[in-house]
Amino acid sequence: MIKLNLHKLLAAALLIFFSDFSFVGCKSKKNIVKTEDVVINDTLTGRCHLAFKTAKALTKHIKENAFDYTWIYAKANAEVKIDSEDYSLDIKVRGKKDSALLISIQYILGIEIAKVLITRDSVRMVIYPKKQFFKGDFNYINELLNADLDFDVIQAVLFGNYAEFDDDETKLKPVTDRQNCHYLVSTERKRRLRKISQGSELKKSLQTMTLNPDNFKILKNEFIDVSTNQRFLAVYENFTMKDSVYAPHHVNIDIAAQKKVNLKIDYVRIEKNQPQKLSLNIPPKYEPISVKKQK
Q1: Residue 277 pLDDT greater than 80, yes or no
Q2: How far apart are CA 175 and CA 115, in angstroms?
């Protein structure tokens, strides 16, 4: 018999799909914004000569490389560790832009665990081994993950499109990291970032994106919330063109919150603009899930 912890299972699924499909592609190869600003002076210092760019220019380049689609389908193998418990999962996601996302979760052996259908104002879920279902809204997700999410934020992060750090973009700071040959967009300036990396105490929440200067794809995304002592770090690797989509096919995510979560994701397939079936049938004999607030 399969034993499931409902909250851990749902948290794993939501964390995977609200975090890890980040930055999966661009409009097309010809639309990738290139820069001629990168020159490696390996005969002298080995440092990159990157031209300074403002935060406004960097965010503009990110938006210009946004992943554009009408329909999306993706399949991934996921290794999930929540505290000391390990899960090996097969995940499929189907979606229509600005409309809905359908997430299917299976064990590696093909045993179906759950499906989650998310729209702009609702969340529906079926847990097959327990013959249970849930109907609700984002309040449940936010309570479960201790987050503040809505469909637009999830959609933007899920598919790599730009989601504002803050309503006021002027608060963002550009950082030119010539030592590692990257651009950064951060809520802190370079000098303060250096002190933080050296162990200086963080006095306010921090968010930093590390960009590839060749195409402005995001290589690393980090969030630190000092009010809750939570940290999110996503590293994107193995950028390849597959199935006509340029994507990071390996993603490693570390989350430190009430639970410690590590996600290792290997994307098997990413396809766009093929119509998908986005429906979730709840069997008539399934029982509703009684949701209790997490303490």
Answers
A1: yes
A2: 41
List the Cα angle 202/203/209 in 5-degree steps.
55
Between residues 258 and 35, the one the model is more confident about = 258
Nearest to 107 by CA among 92, 90, 122: 90
Q: How confident is the model at residue 73 (pLDDT cuts 50, 70, 90)?
A: very high
Rounded CA-CA distance 239/268 in Å is: 13
For 65, residues 6+ apart whose C-beta sits below 8 A from its C-beta are 26, 27, 31, 32, 33, 215, 216, 217
How do residues 128-143 score in pLDDT, each as one tens digit? 988 999 888 877 767 7
Q: Which residue has the tokens 């929540």?
A: 82
Question: Alpha helix locations (H) across the chain?
Answer: 6-19, 55-64, 138-145, 151-158, 190-197
Q: Which helix (H) or strand (E) holds 39?
A: none
Is it the case that residue 11 has pLDDT exceeding 80? no
Nearest to 247 by CA among 218, 221, 274: 218
Q: Which three-class secondary structure state does DSSP give residue 196?
A: helix
Question: What are the b/e assignments for 66-92, b being 16+ CB within 10 Å?
Answer: bbebebbbbebebebebeeeebebbbb
**Which residue type sits at 99?**
S
Token pair belonging to 180:
């590692």
Q: Are 60 and 174 in contact (CB under 8 A)?
A: no
* DSSP string for 234-255: EEEEEEEEETTEEEEEEEEEEE
Is 63 in a helix, a strand, or coil? helix
For the segment 89-100, the average pLDDT, to the nearest whole number, is 91
Q: Are 33 and 158 in contact (CB under 8 A)?
A: no
Domain 7-288 has CATH 2.50.20.10: yes
